[in-house]
C-alpha cells in the first residue's frame, strides 16, 4: 500500500505533541474539578471519594507541564506525519466511525458487510466477486462461532429479526 | 514436595481432552494473532475473552494463556521471514533473523527462534512452579500498606525501566488511574467523575481500552506507514530442525543468561520488549562472534527469543501470587480471572488450588504443543501474511468491534473503543507508553483501595508506608526503581570523575 501524496508536507511533530500535551492537561483539570465535586477531604469512612483522583489530577497537570516544556525546548523539526499519510489514517477512521454509529440501528451483521465491502472495494480495488465472498463470509463465520457455538449474543437489526435469527 | 503433588493434580486437569482441545485451539489462534500486524497478544486475548464466557474457568484460562504463548511464538515468524516484527518484543529478532532468511537460512532461524522460545518459557515455568507458592504464602501476611507498597513498586518500575521519557510514562499511568476512578467509588458507594453521564456509571472497562489502544491504534499506525509485505519463502523440514538442534547446545551460556534476564524483567514489570533488547545487547558484547551480530548470526536469534519468552511467562508469577500483572497481556488475563469471580493474589493458591495448578501445568503442556504446532505449520502461518492488508484490516476492525461489544453487550463500548483507538494512535506517535496506562486502569481501584485503607488505619499519616521493615523495604525498592535512571547517571558521572 502506498501513501496518497509524495509531497513532504504535514503538521510538525512539535505542534501536534504540544496539542496532545495540552489536551492531557485539560483532562487532568477535568479530573481535579470532578474530584472536588466528590469531596477531597476526610470523611467518616476516611479519605472521601475524590481524595485519590484529586492527587492523580494534579500529577497529570504537573507532568503535562513538564512534558510541554521539554517538547517546546526540543529541536525537533520532524513531521508528525505527511498530509497523505493522515489522509490514509482518516480513510479508516471516518468509515469506522460511520460503521460504529450505524451498528445500533442496523445491527452488527449488515454494518459489517457494508464496511468490509467498502474497505476492500475502495481501498483495495478488489473485483466484486472477491469483495462479496469476504464481506458475506466473515459475518456468516462470525455468527456460527460466536452466537451458535460460544453463545455470545451480538447486536441485531431489522434484517436479522426478519430472518428470525 | 507438596508443590510436586499439586503439579501432578494440575497435569491431570490440563490433560482432560476438552482442555487439550482448547490448548491447541488457543495456540493456533495465538500464532495467527502474533503473525497479523495490528493484533497483539493483549488485544488478541481481550477480543477472544468473550469466547471463553461459556467455559469452565480452568479451561478458559488455559485457552487464553495458550493464545498468549501462541502470540509470543507468532511474532518470530514475521520478524524472520518478512522483517516485520508482529510484536514489539520481536524487534530484536529481526536484527539477525531476517539476514539469516535472506541468506536462505530461514528454516534454521525459525527453528532456533522457536526452540529458544520454548527453552525460555520452560525455565520461567519451572521458576513459577518453585517460587510462586512461596511468594503467595509470604504475601498472605500482607496488610493494606504492604499491598499498596507492592503496587507502588510495580508502577515505579515502569517509570524507571521504560525507554520512553519518565514524565510521559507518569502522565500515561495517571490517565489510567483517573479512568479507573470513574464511576462508583467502591469504599463510599458515591458516584464520582461521571458528570451526569449514565453510561459512565460503571466506569471504563480496561478490555475496551486494550482493544482500542492496541488494536485500532495499531491498525491506524499500519495504515499510515503504508505497509507492504515482501518476504522469503518458509521451508522448514525435519532435516533442518534436527541439524539446528545439534547446533544449539553450543549456545547454552547465552540461553541461560537470557533466561535469567527474561525472568527478572518479567517479574519486575519491565516486560518482554526490554528483556529481548537487553539480552541481545549483552550477547553481542560478550560473544566471541559479537562482530558478526546483525549479519545473520544464530546466537543473535537465540538471545532475544529466549529472553522475550522467559519474560512473557515470568510476568504471570506476580499476577498469580500477588495479583499484580507483569505485562499488559497478563493484565488482560487478570481481568479475565476477575470476570469469572476469581480473586488473583495469594488467596488463589489456598482457595482455588485446582485452578492455579491446572494453569501452571498447562504452561508446560501449552508451550510444548506450541513448539510442535509452529514447527509443523510455519508455511501455513506465513501464507496468512500474504493476504493483503486491505482484506485483513477490515476483518480485524470488525473483530475488535465484536470483542468490545461482547464485554457488556453495549454499543456504547464500541464507540469508546474507537475513541481509545484514535487516542492510542496519537499517544503512541507522541512517545507515550500504553502499557502503564492499561495496567493503571486494571489496578487503579485495587491500588486506591489499599492506599485509602492504609491511611484510614494511620489516621491520615503517610508514615504507615514506612512503619515496619517489610513495607519500608518494598517502598524503598520502589523509590530506587523510580529514580533508577537518575541513579545510573549519577554513578556513571561519579566513575568518570574518579577515572
Automatic annotation (TrEMBL), chain A:
Q: Does the keyword Ubl conjugation apply?
A: no
Signal peptide as annotated in the record: none
Under the heading Pfam families, the entry gives: TctB
DUF1468 domain residues? 22-155
Residue ranges of the TM segments: 20-40, 52-72, 92-119, 126-146
Question: InterPro entries this protein is in?
Answer: DUF1468
Q: Which UniProt keywords apply?
A: Membrane, Transmembrane, Transmembrane helix
Keyword Cell division (UniProt): no
Q: What is this protein called?
A: Tricarboxylic transport membrane protein
The organism's taxonomic lineage, starting at the top: Bacteria, Pseudomonadati, Pseudomonadota, Alphaproteobacteria, Hyphomicrobiales
UniProtKB/TrEMBL annotation, chain B:
| Superkingdom per UniProt | Bacteria
List UniProt keywords, sorted A-Z. Answer: Membrane, Transmembrane, Transmembrane helix
Q: Where is the DUF112 domain?
A: 20-439
Bilayer-crossing residues are: 20-49, 61-82, 109-136, 148-163, 169-188, 200-221, 326-343, 355-381, 387-407, 463-487
Keyword field contains Transmembrane helix: yes
Q: Which Pfam families match?
A: TctA
Asked if the record carries the keyword Transmembrane helix, the reply is yes
Name the UniProt record assigns to this protein: Tricarboxylic transport membrane protein
Source organism (scientific name): Bradyrhizobium algeriense
The organism that produces this protein has a lineage beginning with:
Bacteria, Pseudomonadati, Pseudomonadota, Alphaproteobacteria, Hyphomicrobiales
Amino acid at each position: 500500500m502506498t501513501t496518497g501524496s509524495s509531497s513532504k508536507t504535514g503538521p510538525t511533530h512539535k505542534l501536534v505533541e504540544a496539542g496532545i500535551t495540552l489536551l492531557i492537561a485539560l483532562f487532568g483539570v477535568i479530573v481535579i474539578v470532578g474530584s472536588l465535586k466528590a469531596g477531597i477531604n476526610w470523611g467518616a469512612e476516611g479519605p472521601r471519594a475524590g481524595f485519590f483522583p484529586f492527587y492523580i489530577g494534579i500529577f497529570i497537570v504537573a507532568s503535562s507541564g513538564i512534558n510541554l516544556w521539554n517538547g517546546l525546548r526540543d529541536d525537533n523539526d520532524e513531521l508528525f506525519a505527511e498530509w497523505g499519510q493522515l489522509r490514509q489514517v482518516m480513510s479508516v477512521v471516518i468509515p469506522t466511525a460511520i460503521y460504529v454509529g450505524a451498528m445500533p440501528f442496523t445491527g452488527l451483521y449488515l454494518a459489517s458487510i457494508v464496511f468490509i465491502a467498502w474497505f476492500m472495494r475502495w481501498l483495495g480495488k478488489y473485483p466484486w466477486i472477491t469483495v462479496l465472498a469476504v464481506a458475506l463470509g466473515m459475518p456468516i463465520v462470525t455468527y456460527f462461532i460466536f452466537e451458535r457455538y460460544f453463545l455470545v449474543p451480538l447486536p441485531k437489526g431489522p434484517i436479522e429479526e426478519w430472518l428470525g435469527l | 514436595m507438596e508443590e510436586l503433588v499439586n503439579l501432578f493434580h494440575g497435569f491431570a486437569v490440563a490433560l482432560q481432552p476438552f482442555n487439550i482441545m482448547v490448548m491447541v485451539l488457543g495456540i493456533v489462534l495465538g500464532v495467527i494473532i502474533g503473525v497479523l500486524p495490528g493484533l497483539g497478544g493483549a488485544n488478541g486475548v481481550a477480543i477472544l475473552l468473550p469466547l471463553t464466557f461459556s467455559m469452565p474457568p480452568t479451561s478458559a484460562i488455559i485457552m487464553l494463556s495458550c493464545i498468549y504463548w501462541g502470540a509470543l511464538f507468532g511474532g518470530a515468524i514475521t520478524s524472520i521471514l518478512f522483517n516485520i516484527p508482529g510484536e514489539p518484543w520481536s524487534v530484536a529478532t529481526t536484527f539477525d533473523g531476517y539476514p539469516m532468511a535472506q541468506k536462505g537460512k530461514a528454516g534454521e532461524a525459525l527453528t532456533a527462534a522457536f526452540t529458544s522460545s520454548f527453552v525460555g518459557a520452560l525455565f520461567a515455568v519451572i521458576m513459577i512452579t518453585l517460587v510462586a507458592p512461596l511468594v503467595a504464602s509470604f504475601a498472605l501476611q500482607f496488610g493494606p500498606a504492604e499491598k499498596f507498597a507492592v503496587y507502588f513498586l510495580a508502577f515505579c518500575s515502569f517509570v524507571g525501566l521504560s525507554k520512553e521519557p519518565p514524565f510521559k510514562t507518569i502522565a500515561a499511568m495517571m490517565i489510567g488511574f483517573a479512568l479507573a476512578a470513574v464511576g462508583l467509588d467502591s469504599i463510599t458507594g458515591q458516584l464520582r467523575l461521571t458528570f451526569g453521564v449514565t453510561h459512565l456509571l460503571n466506569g471504563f472497562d480496561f478490555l475496551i481500552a486494550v482493544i482500542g489502544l492496541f488494536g485500532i491504534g495499531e491498525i491506524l499506525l499500519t495504515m499510515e506507514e503504508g505497509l507492504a509485505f515482501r518476504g522469503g519463502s518458509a521451508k522448514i523440514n525435519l532435516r533442518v530442525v534436527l541439524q539446528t538442534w545439534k547446533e544449539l547446545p553450543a549456545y547454552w551460556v547465552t540461553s541461560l543468561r537470557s533466561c535469567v534476564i527474561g525472568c527478572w524483567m518479567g517479574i519486575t514489570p519491565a516486560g518482554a520488549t526490554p528483556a529481548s533488547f537487553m539480552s541481545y545487547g549483552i550477547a553481542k558484547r560478550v560473544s566471541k562472534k559479537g562482530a558478526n551480530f546483525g549479519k545473520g548470526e544464530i546466537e543473535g536469534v537465540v538471545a532475544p527469543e529466549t529472553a522475550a519468552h522467559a519474560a512473557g511467562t515470568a510476568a504471570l508469577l506476580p499476577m498469580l501470587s500477588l495479583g499484580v500483572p507483569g505485562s499488559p497481556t497478563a493484565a488482560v488475563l487478570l481481568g479475565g480471572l476477575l470476570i469469572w469471580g476469581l480473586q488473583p493474589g495469594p488467596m488463589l493458591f489456598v482457595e482455588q488450588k485446582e485452578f492455579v495448578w491446572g494453569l501452571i501445568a498447562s504452561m508446560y503442556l501449552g508451550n510444548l504443543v506450541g513448539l510442535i504446532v509452529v514447527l509443523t505449520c510455519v508455511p501455513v502461518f506465513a501464507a496468512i501474511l500474504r493476504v493483503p492488508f486491505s482484506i485483513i484490516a477490515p476483518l480485524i476492525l470488525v473483530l475488535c468491534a465484536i470483542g468490545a461489544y461482547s464485554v457488556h453487550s453495549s454499543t456504547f463500548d464500541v464507540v469508546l473503543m474507537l475513541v481509545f483507538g484514535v487516542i492510542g494512535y496519537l499517544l503512541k506517535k507522541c512517545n507515550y507508553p500504553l502499557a502503564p496506562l492499561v495496567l493503571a486502569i486494571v489496578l487503579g481501584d485495587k491500588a486506591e483501595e489499599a492506599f485509602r485503607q492504609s491511611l484510614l488505619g494511620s489516621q491520615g499519616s503517610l508514615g504507615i508506608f514506612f512503619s515496619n521493615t517489610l513495607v519500608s523495604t518494598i517502598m524503598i525498592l520502589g523509590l530506587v526503581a523510580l529514580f533508577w535512571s537518575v541513579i545510573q547517571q549519577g554513578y556513571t558521572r561519579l566513575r568518570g570523575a574518579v577515572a
